[in-house]
## 1
Amino acid sequence: MKRTLQPAEKKQCHCEELVEVVRLVEVVSRLLRWISTIFVRALVASCLLLAGCTTVVPKRGVAVQSRGSGKKVLVGIDITGSYALLPQALPLVADFFMMNSVPGDTWIFRWIERNSYSDRAAIPVFKGKSSVTLPPLRKPSNPFDKRGKVKYLSRLREVIAIKKQVTENLQELTKKAQEIRTLQRERVRGTDIWGFLIKAQDLGVSDIVMFTDLGDTMRNEMPLRLDGVRVWILGFQSGKKPKETSKRRAYWTSVLRKAGVSEISFFDISEPLPILPKWEGGEF
């Protein structure tokens, strides 16, 4: 004789069936996630293989590092009497830093003056120092790595805060343009481009950025090696005589090429600021 289930027993059976269904859904969900991960990795590896590249698939939860190291940029601002474009150039320095600084970079700021190699030529831009290094950012490869994501976002906020502070300090220079002008008249007589370039050699930079007219008068010439370095002359002051300007550009282009510079670019004060290419030259 078939036994009739009581209401309480029926409810218990339904609960047990529901638990089994939930467990089955969880198992299927995990299996689908595993299959999709394997498929994506295989697809990426296939694409890279077809493109002629090789890569190492990162382990679960390990951050993926970007190719190459950050840039090391030396920025020089000419405060000598011959550079008449200083008031226009100062705001551009802050804009240029904000546009081009990325995580992993090191930026150094100095005056171009009578003795550009000296310690007094350093411009304090962050915590009293003339250099600032932006922390590198590494995105977690595992999208479910909550701890890695929190760490990444924290480091990102740190980078943004540093960039903001440096930019504000550089903008303060614009407000002190008149004070800097007075400094020019009192202290700065003569321009030392060679001393600035020798300091760049000592620092081992990837990029040299100068806001200047390149009118060197101190003649501190000495052997110079800047192998692979990129040089950017921004806010270049042309002057009134095209022949003199052309001669000056040709002279410094020759000096820098002989020193091993890989790229030399001149930008007029009226031109948009350039975007620095990613540095692929290795560690410093």
## 2
Amino acid sequence: MLASFPSSQSDPEMVAKGYLFAVDGVDEDSVLRVAMKYVKGTVPNQERRFAPSAAEFSDNCRSDNENIQAAIRLIAKNPARQDDVLRNLSHWAPDAMADVVHSAKRLALTYTAGDDREARDD
């Protein structure tokens, strides 16, 4: 991602380490999805001449991951809303749709098995 911006810092290895530290614990798919959005210039309010700060990038990755997890929980709890959730998801994370459906089905099985610990976390 950093190579896509003309004004990058002088020590790319240290900059990359900062980004890796900032996204520690974030789902890899979210990191890749957000990095591609920055490269494509599709992040809202993005300064296109400069790479985002590590904190800004991390915030966007965490937000993406939270949105994906919320979609999974929503479909798992209410399968009738799957089409609406996927229609919304298709606008900002089309590559995640199959994984969301699969994960929602697995989570729904835990709900039907009587394990509602995940359901109470909301």
